[in-house]
Fold:
Amino acid sequence: MIQIKKINGFTLAELMIVLIIMGAISAIAYPRIMLTVERSEAQEAVQNLTAVLASQNRYNLRNGTFFGGAGTAMAGQLDITLPASNHFAVPMLYNAQTVGGTASVVAAITSNDAETAIYRIKITTTGTLRCDNNAGAALPAVCNLLGIATP
Structure:
């Protein structure tokens, strides 16, 4: 009598089904992971802008005006030092004035991440955040997903 030895293992069809399922799960999960990464990078920019706003307010109290012009580089003019960022450029400062009760932009920071569209986050004298592209047009695809208002 011949004994047949049973070999344990997976068939090629079973392995292919597992690979297809894993591919489908990763196709669904990847965009959400990238959105989470983008949100965390944007949060870094928001924290930097909040620090710049506080420093701009202190500068305004001392000098009667906000520091900067139409997009002046920070260049150590304020009493803060921001950590270097791989995702955003150095904040640009604006000599903001509150005109007729309307707050104007104090600082803006631009993304430099090639994986997403280039966008800019701005903060006003009242601390309101705005998001647009460098030309000033709204970018709902990025900004709305980040939860930051567009113009």
About this structure: The mean pLDDT is 78. The chain has one domain: 12-146. Residues 12-146 form one domain. The chain is about 40% helix and 15% strand.
